[in-house]
Amino acid sequence: MDTQSMIILGNGFDLALGIETRYSQFYAKSQELRDLANNGNSLCQHILDDIKGEYWSDLECGLYQYSLAITKKYGIGNQDQADKFEHEFNELRTALFIYLQGAAGTIVEAINEAPALGLNVEWHNLEPQYLTFNYSINTANTSSMNGRYILNEDDSINENHFIYQHGSIYDFQACQNRRSEDIVVGIDPISQQVEAAHSFLYKTKQRLHDLNSTIDYISKKNFYAVYGCSVGDSDATYFRFLFNRYQHDKIFLIYGFGQEAIDSIKANIERICSIEINTLEANNHVLFLDVKKVEETRIITREVIENYLKSIII
Question: What is the pLDDT of residues 250-275, one digit of tens each?
């Protein structure tokens, strides 16, 4: 069944499963991060001293600000400083990879009452395409309800059903962990521009699923569910194709953990995508759902999906 639907998952999805992949948890628990800082990695020291917040977007914005600070201090085109920065950045990514291996490298037992689990049952009825910005194996396993429809015959992931846009720490086909270079962490080349010597920070310069293909997939869908995404600057490219004035007669289910989170998502959509929420709602069926209200949110999700499925069969 091709329902032209897409489930877009951010780190909030893994957190809802009880997986410790919050940026602040990496910051607090990574011994490798501290060892690098103690051994002279000034980027890692900057992260420990100066970056505050709960979200991965806070880390990514911190990378952007650090780049600007280096340029301001040493001038544009200082290759020695750029090489040092890139080396320290690669060490940081390795520390992140090591932390993720421990936190989410294998299947973990999800919290039974996690709101995401109940919503998965409803999403699964769509047989949608999943787009995830997470790195963990749990995202694919849990979102698909362990169904094989996201896999090819050789157990590789079928991109028509599941895309790891930022890579993953685990290779389904080889049944082993990947390398640190296979995950993407960085900044957006449009909303967070840095000098050319620091372009290694751009997500589009790293190993990721083909950007144009992902944008094409997003643009052609009729039904979107967005869960666990703060809609931050570092992924602005994707969200501009999702939330824009050219979208008409589409369905958007946008989940937030509490009203404060929902208000923040709305503000980020308006700021990053240059569209007022009222305009988006006037042209489409848009619902912002509070996942703290577990049963209410699941009932609404079920009703919307059932009505949508009926509409495409008629």
Answer: 999 999 999 999 999 999 999 999 99
Check residue 221 and give its pLDDT: 95
Nearest-angstrom CA–CA distance, 221 and 215: 10
Residue 154 carries which side chain, given as an amino acid letter? D
Phi/psi at 51 (5° precision): -95, 120
Cα 314 to Cα 310: distance, rounded to the nearest angstrom? 6
HSE-CB at 212 with a 13 A cutoff on CA atoms is 0
Structure tokens that stand for 172 in this block: 């389904």
Question: In 10 A of CB 179, how many CB atoms?
Answer: 12
Mean pLDDT (the chain, rounded): 88
Q: What is the pLDDT of residues 124-153, one digit of tens each?
A: 888 889 999 988 877 776 665 545 566 677
Q: DSSP H helical segments within the chain, as ranges?
A: 11-16, 23-29, 31-38, 42-50, 56-74, 79-104, 115-124, 137-143, 211-220, 236-242, 259-273, 277-283, 294-313
Alpha-carbon distance 284 to 272, whole Å? 19
The residue whose two tokens read 């977007």 is: 57
Give CA 219 to chain center in angstroms: 18
